[in-house]
Amino acid sequence: MTVEVAPGAGFCFGVKRALRLAFEAARESDGPVVTLGPIIHNPQVVERLESEGLRVVQTLDEIDSGTLVVRSHGLPGPILDEAERRGLRIVDATCPFVKQVQDRAKELEREGYSVVVVGEEDHPEVLSITGSLERPALVVNGPKGLDSIGEHDRVGVVCQTTQPPERLRSVIVGLLSKAPELKVFNTICEATFERQAHALELAKRAEVMLVVGGRNSANTRRLWELCREATCDAYHIETADEFDPGWIQGADLVGITGGASTPQWIIDDLVAVVESAMASGRTGGGTPPSVGSS
Question: What is the CATH number of domain 13-94?
């Protein structure tokens, strides 16, 4: 019985950059330091930042002065404008790839295209994209979402950075009959695509896959969904404390992967716990978690 961690598991470039900027701001700023919503979707990391003095707020009304660290998912332009008007110091930790999606969407709007965003309507990254446009955009999470769109002369498409490529392709195919002119920017993050590919390759070889990361992390959930399609036993857990040795009973290969917001220490903790269970023979029958398991 062996354990294998998928290549690329854990923090991506954008998350590493955001956390570096956030920790620097928390340690070096004189006044209050806040983010509008969690800087990344990992509660353990957010707790560590809070211990350094960075506070999570929900509205700008909760801060009179100090520093606003823009979360990795970005913020709508009007909110940033309001923060500047209030005299807040802004540390922009928006992932550069998310910033590129925002810019592409605004470019399409300036050129007269009706903008379609492939992604999750309530996800903060998507809200930062649509909130930076002057006109409403259509957000779809697949071709079924196109039922509400009529025929348009010109349609432009961007994509939430963590969406699977097949979802973007299905939306493009669905739009071909609705728009004589279609302009598409493939804004899926390459690191996300590679992480999903590595996780899927490992899941096809392993009897059990453990996907570790925040339950509110969209890209971690997608990793679990991909692994679940490839193997009959795939579990989404947030930390090693949730691991049940019974899940790996009889498995020759246990695969592990983590989302873009999962720190290396959480992955390392899980590897150590799984290896300890293997060594001690504690792999009796167990019960899957209530959320994110197959």
Answer: 3.40.50.11270
Mean pLDDT, the chain, integer? 91
Token pair 């940033």 in the structure block, residue: 80
Catalytic residue check, 125: yes
The matching CATH number, chosen from 3.40.50.720, 3.20.20.70, 3.40.1010.20, 3.40.30.10, for 2-10+191-280 is 3.40.1010.20
Give tens-digit pLDDT for 200-255: 999 999 999 999 999 988 889 989 999 999 877 999 999 999 999 999 999 999 99
Q: How far apart are the first and last CA of the chain?
A: 21
- What's the whole-model pTM score? 0.84
Which among 120, 125, 207, 238 is annotated as catalytic?
Answer: 125
Separation of alpha carbons 210 and 243, rounded Å = 9
